[in-house]
Design brief:
Length: 517
Amino acid sequence: MILGLLLLVSSAQASFTDVKHAYDSGQYFSAARMAFNDANHAGNKAEQALAYAWVSESLIRAGLDQSALYFFFRTIQLQDRTASRKVLELAPILIERTGPDLMRKFLTKFTNIEDYSSRAKNAYFVSLAKEKLLKGDYSGAIQNASLVQTNHQLYPVALQIKATAETMINQSAAAIRDFAECASHADQRNEVDEEQISGSLQAKWNSLKENAARDLRARCIAGQARVLYETEKFDEADRMYDQIPKASFVWTDTLFEHAWNSYAREEYNRTLGKLVSYKSPALQFSFNTEVDVLMAQSYMALCIYPDASKIIDEFTKTYGSVAKEVKTFVDTNSSDLRPYFNLGKEALAQKLHTDRKLYRFMNRFVRSPYFEAVALSQERVAAERIAIQRMDSSRPETSTGMSAGFPGFLSLVLEWRNRSIELLGGIYIKNSMIDYHQVLISDFEKMQFMKIDLLSHLKQKLMEPELASSAERNRGNRIPVRRNDQLLWTFNGEFWNDEIGDYVFALESECNKDDAK
């Protein structure tokens, strides 16, 4: 009996030697095939786990990341310390190339800190920090994010998580510091081999990585501005909002926040100037109902009621149909997530300046680096299937085709991966649609309350003009302050891209008009 076990171990070791030889020779697909065969004939859990680790690593080196993900998960599920330690070195690469969500779930469920090398621990800390952040354990999120090494490629992400958690527990100074650090390290990358993807996907992938870094930097700058605004440091917040690159979607989505900052300083003309930028042809793709709400509030603050009334009346005409369309879609697809993912892909495939309001509504989230990466992952699954067929057929002596053997199993793996992508993308689109629809409904309610307030003011002016002017005596003009780094130009009726976001109205407040009589 003992002799039989020794012979089995010896055979397994010899086989792993063959796998390593093929791997070292650059024959990664062959190495993965041999390791897969070893896993199917393993004598115990430890051997099977180690074989799966070799499959995962070999497939990554072969450029088959989507396929490798399954074997990575199988390895850590077997919970053998030696195999886990080997495969977990790949965690940062897979987080980047296949997305963080599934990785986070498996890492936090099936691994613990003792399974990692000192370098690989960073992926675990980031995953655990994000998991705790989502569950509202902000102290735990800060603690784990703080453990990520400063020279690791996941360090900027850890800083964003940490700063977000600090914001939630009112550690404002720390949040501003960490958001600033995140912005300065957003493009930090190291120790991740550049992968080769066949065809046009390589260019898409490279562009996506660059866009993700720029997006992270912009979001961390915006994070600083929000904290400054919430702590009523409006001048500093104003300067920080100015630092968000105008070419980013983050700027488009935070311009109205910048306008709120001016509103908080009672600079209503500057608020209206920033909001009118959304009327520019360059920003016609944007869909943000809070812009209309704030514009109406600003006219109300200046007591220019006809303009406020016009915006309130047009709000329902502008947004009523899309609100119904979103609700109908959500009600019709209450349980199946695939229609959401397909709708997200449809919206992403449309031109940015689409005429369909539903797609414009979805522009705020389908064009995020997260969803773009999810959609691209599905394209990569299709590309991997073709690559596997090519790799299998290149070795006639071992070729089995896509219906049998290792390629056949990989075909099943890719079906699983495609389904997981549809589920992740679908839940993201569904949650985003529901969240933004709730904002839309809330803005409808705000407009209705504002209309009641407006009618009250108009009635008061008609019935008791002297009392009305007295009540509004403190709501006069506040001239926007021009900073030393700002120049003053008159508006000639044209929108210029370098001026978008910097317009200021020159309206006279009508709040004290009756006092002048």
